[in-house]
Amino acid sequence: MKAIYTKTVLYAYTRIEAVKRQIDDYVERKALASMNDHSPCDEQCERIIKHMAQKVILTQLKSKLNVVLACITDEEMDLLDFKYFRKRSKSYYEHMNTTGRSYYRKQSNLLKKISRLCGKSFLTDQWFEENCLKINFIRRIIKMVERSERTPTRFREEKMLKEIDQKKQKNDKKQSKGFKLSA
Q1: C-beta of residue 79 within 8 angstroms of C-beta of residue 110
Q2: Phi-psi category of 128—alpha, beta or left, where left has phi over 0 and alpha has psi -120 to 50?
Q3: Phi and psi dihedrals of 152, rounded to 5?
């Protein structure tokens, strides 16, 4: 699976249930307001069916991602929680036993692993393009990912990680000074 698609599905993962609820609300409102809509009945039904089909696709996407996420380690899940799912705060990284370069290497390797696992779970580029790209929610996330790869967002993230690394180094120096052996 292409890296941009993998990133997109990871960012979308935690939001899928909320979008499905929004689709349910939309369908219910459209059905209740159908008597005030003077467009032909078949057009109204087609719009509702289109939204329900999107809900089915999102359900399939989440199911496929659940299979993929079941194959990764706890440490890898922590990395996903920090970067994509936003379940971890900046302070979480401070307590990780890793440097900025190591963090990026781990994230890069994890993204490649998830891309491979997606292919094995039938979450392929073709399936994604034929199904998910029809959904506005997914297209907005792809645009966000594309922008973030072209803008200084990554540089800000790198700067933040560098600052945290520097703090860690200062703390390590302070701790090592306290443990000097006398000759």
Answers
A1: yes
A2: alpha
A3: -70, 5
Residue 85: Cβ-neighbour burial (10 angstroms; 0-12, 13-18, 19+): middle
> Helix (H, G, I), strand (E, B), or coil: what is residue 30?
helix
Per-residue tokens: 77: 């899940």
Q: How far apart are the first and last CA of the chain?
A: 59
Question: Dihedral angle at the C-alpha atoms of 9, 10, 11, 13, nearest 10 degrees?
Answer: 80
Which H or E run contains 20?
helix 16-32
**pLDDT digit string (tens) for 144-156?**
998 887 765 566 6
- Segment holding 55, helix H or strand E: helix 41-69
Dihedral sign, Cα of residue 119, residue 122, residue 126, residue 132: negative
- For residue 34, the one-letter residue type is S
pTM check: above 0.70: yes
Q: Could you give the C-alpha distances from 139 to 14, 61, 87, 127, in angstroms and in order?
A: 16, 14, 23, 15
pLDDT of 100 > 90? The answer is no
CA distance 28 to 23: 9
